[in-house]
Structure formats: structure tokens, C-alpha cells
Amino acid sequence: MSVNVEIEGEIAIVTIGNPPVNAVNRAVRERLLALAQELDDNPDVRAVILTGAGTLFVAGADIAEFDRPAEPPFLPDVIARIERAVKPWIAAIRGAAFGGGLELALGCRFRVATESARFALPEINLGIIPGAGGTQRLPRVIGVADAIHIVAENQTPGGAEALKLGLVDALVEEPLLPAAIAFARNALEHALPSPSLDRPVSVPSPDVWAEAEDRIAARAKGAAAPARALQALRHGIEHGAEAGLALERSIFLELRATEEAAALRHLFFAERAALRPAEIRGINPRPIETVAVVGGGTMGSGIAAALLNAGLSVVLIEQDEAGVSRARSTLAGIFDSSRRRGQITDDQASERMARLETSIGYGAAARCDLVIEAVFEDLAVKRSVFAELGRVCRPDAVLATNTSYIDPRLIAEGLPGPERFLGLHFFSPAQVMKLLEIIPTPETAPDVLATGFDLARRLGKIPVRSGICDGFIGNRILRRFRAEAEALVCGGVAIAAVDAAMRGFGFAMGPFEMQDMAGLDIAFLYREAARSRGEDVPEIPGDLLVRAGRKGQKTGGGWYDYAAGDRRPQPSAAAERIIVPLVSARNDVAEEAIVARLMAAMAQEGQLILDEGIAASAADIDLVEVHGYGFPRRRGGPMFQAGRASADKT
Ligand code: NAD
């Protein structure tokens, strides 16, 4: 039974136990509804405590049910019944009270919580809004301005903050249940407060709504749900709770059926699965506390920052004094900017720098549990680094390369103990980007692979296992995506039209703006190297631009022109003239057709990657694109898009 009842004197204790997160599913709803009646009818019971089994209250509704039509009894009706129960219900909360869990708690007459409690209405992250009264009861309990932050802006107060907000009536110590029972006995001595929904609420000035709308629009990135959550909340304040509940429910059901919500659910499940792939289940990772990072350039510094942020100790190894001091100042800059943004305190910034040691020789690597190499992308340089590491590191230390393209098997050739080697491919900026591609070689030991996944979890990253191929999963799809974008331009589509279409789809930048920012020269040199090996690599517009000295923003122009000190791209007649030999007559293609071409190219490459066994699942490919390449989250990823496109055709 997922809902358990015990009677302690005149108090009934109802415990929701539906591991792992006590999700409210149909069985839980049915039982709660029946219990509200049963306990009202029980003359021995005077109050009801509602709590969750284990370390949390209820982390939400059962998302797996969202892909089916809603089944009665509906959560709003269950909560309404609890709220109107003759015997008052008291929520006793430790850990997460999220989504439907918080809505249930709001339906209770009182809430008591421990410090560990955490309150959230995260529905907007799944493309929906709270659907069981959250947008209506919360403002009536804590006031409109604070409710907006939680309903539409993802604020997640803890126990102490919730007490200040008036969201909980008492903050108690563990053990929770005896404290809740004492609270209940005391409450029964006094007149009961009104049910949440009946409480008076003051209507805010129009400025409050306007400011909230602006804040929400600025952060939404095209997502619909946050503004709709605000709309439901406001409607209830302006037209009464009943009208608010009706609108909330209809928006909830409408959004639940959208592509955006399906995409966000798809990613939610993909992310959860990514952290615990079947192949490492039950395998213990190696303990990692001190990590050496070899190379302190763009990637090495970012990787070191990510490790320091996660509480690990770092030894950063560079080739000379200049390299060391450059890396130190990059890291100081990274923590300083987190400090200025209020993400960490002064003390935390200094403490992180104190966990950083820099070194020119490899000696310090001898006491490291893990080494991540991030030197130049050059096989000979990387091999010489691993030759040193093979000599100095402990035989059980895990050794990793951050290479973007070089076959890790070649890098590990001759390494003593190749079973401890793997690729850990971070993305720039490494302290920010969530993706970590994990690339085992055929010799990588299972516990070394498990160590890679465990490290990702500790760094707050999304790990995706990739097989070995040129560019692994992400850069291989990126190359195909760029090639298709250039093919569109060769076919007469304007450069700016391609970029505008992809921005319209939800990318922060189009493919050409992105290349201008990153520089066109690295990909060019890569193609030139292939040509010099005798491979047949046809000339593309990007080659002509680089040969003409247009390498992107850093040279004042690439696909676009840039005024000095200005990163805004301006259409470039010069660029168009240079690429003319490879471009057909102007051919205007509709935005949707441009998007469809580029999506199809990504999905085709993704399918090849799947067929070759490079990625374990289509969902993994979507995670790579969303967390490493700026693919708009609300679109679910290229494989999700391909699934929708083929479903539309059938
Ligand atoms: P970078 O040129 O910014 O940094 C390389 C650093 O390595 C330099 O500071 C250099 O002094 C140092 N170095 C070179 N040889 C060394 C040695 N023998 N010992 C110690 N330090 C040495 O390069 P980067 O962009 O940080 O790239 C590093 C690696 O990460 C490459 O393999 C690259 O392909 C990969 N990578 C780069 C990106 C990116 O976006 N830049 C993304 C993912 C992976």
C-alpha cells in the first residue's frame, strides 16, 4: 500500500510511501480521497497529519502519467476534499515538497517543516503550470509578490525561508512526527485558521504585474509556461479563486498536450537515465579527491574551475611560469565573476583558490587520483604528456584526455595500465556547460568508466557515453549541421536568412554567427590537413573566407562584418563577393524549410551514430545537443524533433 495510516490517540498519521520520490499517482490520489472521508467519519480522530515516507515529503505528481489522458480522481478534487475535511489536516514536511507535493501541503490547514524542507513549483520546467491549485492557494497563503517568484520564476525556499514567508506555520526539529503531533494537539486547543483558498489576499498594484511580466519574458527564452503560470495566478486574484482554479486547470491541460511539454518531459527522463546507465550499475567508482589538470588554457582552466566548484582539490600543471600565471589569473577571474554575480561569497572564492595548486613539473601528479589532460590538440604533444604521467602516477590513478577529435586509442598507445585510461570530453566554458562526453577505449576498465560517470554527477554535469569516431557524438553532428548550412548558402539562401531561421527556432545564435564567434580557422586547418593527406575534401565557402583572411570576429569579419569593439554581425557584401564562385543565384527559402533541412541533417547523422553503436540511445544524442551545443531545450533535441516529424507524416 502506497499510503499508510496509523492512529496515535486522537491523531491520524497518513504517510505517502511511493519510492523513490513519493510521487502522487492515481493509486495515491484514490487512497487520499477515501481517507479524507474515512477519517472525517471516525469519531476517535480529531486531526490528521500528512507526511512522506523516508527523507522527503512528495516530489510531485507522477510524470509518467502525463503521456496519458488524466484519470480520476483528479488531484485538484483530492486537495479540495482534504481542504474541506472536518478534521484539520496538517502537512509534516522534511525534504522536497515539490509540485503536486507542495499543492497537497497547501490544501492542508497547517504546515510544519524541518530545516531540510524544500518547497518548489517546478512545473514550468516541464512546460506546464501547477494544475492542482498551486497558483491560487500559494498567493493566498504568502502574498502575491512572493508567490510569483515560486510559481513562475523557479524560486525554491528552504525550511527557514518558508517560515519567514508564512508558507509554514512552524519550523520543528527532527524527529518530525512527535513534533508534528505536539503541534497538532496544541492547534486543536485554538480556533482553526481558514482554509488556504478562503484566505483574503491583497490585490497588488499594476506595477507588480508589469514588473513580473518583464522579468519572466526576459528569462523565458521563448518558453510559454512561465507567462501562463503568471496569467493563472493573476486571474484568480482579479476574478476570485474559483475562476482562477478553472483557468489554472484549463491551462494545465492545454500545455500538457503541447510539443514543448512533451520535449521537456523527454529530456527530464533522459537526464535521469543518463546518470545511471545500465552498464555501470552496481560497479563502484574509484574514490577521487585530488585531480591533476594538465594544460591550463581555455579548457584546462575551465575544467579546474568546475572541479574546484565541486569541492575537489586541483593541481594544475603547465609548461612554464607564464602558463601557470595565465591559468591562475583565468581562474581568479572566473571565481571573481561568480562572486560579483552573487553566486559565491568572498570566502568561498578564496577557499576555492586555496584548493588550487599550480606546478610546472609532473611530480605533484604522483598523489592525484585522477589526471585530466587538456594540452594542445596534437597527438605527439599528448603522447609525451601521457608518457610522463605513466611514469609518475600511481598505477590505480585514472588518466583522461579531453581531446576533441584525436582517437583516444592512439593517445593511450604504450601507456602502462591502459585499463585506467578514458576520454572525458568537456565543453567550453567547462565550468558552465553541462555536457560531459565519456569515451571509453576497448581497454577501459568498468570501474574507470563508472568513475567518469560519478565525476560527472559530482560536477553537476550530464554524462553521455560516446563510442570512438571522428568528433565523437557532438562535434560529428556539428560538422554535418554546418555542412548543411553551407549547402543552403551554396544553393542561394542568404547567410543571414539561415541564421535568422535557427534563432527563430530557439538557438541563441545561427550557425554562421556561431562560426564567426568561435573562429573559422580551426575547421579550415582540419580540412586542409585532410586534403594534404590526399583525402577528397571539396572546397566550401568557409575555405574561401579563411583564405581571404576572414576568420571571424577576431579578424573583424568572417561570414559577417563587425565594427571595431562591436560583436553585432552586419551583413557583408565583401563576404558574399568572396564566396560567389561557389554560390548559385539567390533562392529564397521559407524559414520552416531552412529549419527542416538542418534538423533532418542532424537527425540523419544522429541515426548513423546510433546505427554504428556510437551513442547508446536517441535520447543521449538529444542530451548532447541540448547540453553541449545550445539546442533549445523546449524543442527536445534533433532526434525528438525527427520523431515528431515522422509522427506528423503518418
Ligand atoms: P589552449 O591552447 O587554450 O590550451 C592548451 C594549454 O596547454 C596551453 O595553456 C599550453 O601552455 C598548455 N600545454 C601545452 N603543452 C603542455 C605540456 N606538455 N604540459 C603542460 N601544459 C601544456 O587549448 P584548449 O582550447 O584549452 O584545448 C585543450 C584541449 O581541449 C585540446 O585537446 C582541445 O581539442 C580540447 N577541447 C577544446 C575545446 C574548446 O572549445 N576550446 C572544447 C573541448 C575540447
Automatic annotation (TrEMBL):
Pathway: Lipid metabolism; fatty acid beta-oxidation. Residues 471-562 form the 3-hydroxyacyl-CoA dehydrogenase C-terminal domain. It catalyses: a (3S)-3-hydroxyacyl-CoA + NAD(+) = a 3-oxoacyl-CoA + NADH + H(+). It is found in: Peroxisome. It comes from the Bacteria. Coiled coil: none annotated. CDD domains: crotonase-like (cd06558). Keywords: Fatty acid metabolism, Isomerase, Lipid degradation, Lipid metabolism, Lyase, Multifunctional enzyme, NAD, Oxidoreductase, Peroxisome. InterPro entries: 3-OHacyl-CoA_DH_NAD-bd (IPR006176), 3HC_DH_C (IPR006108), 6-PGluconate_DH-like_C_sf (IPR008927), ClpP/crotonase-like_dom_sf (IPR029045), Enoyl-CoA_hydra/iso (IPR001753), NAD(P)-bd_dom_sf (IPR036291). This is Enoyl-CoA hydratase/isomerase family protein. Residues 290-465 form the 3-hydroxyacyl-CoA dehydrogenase NAD binding domain.
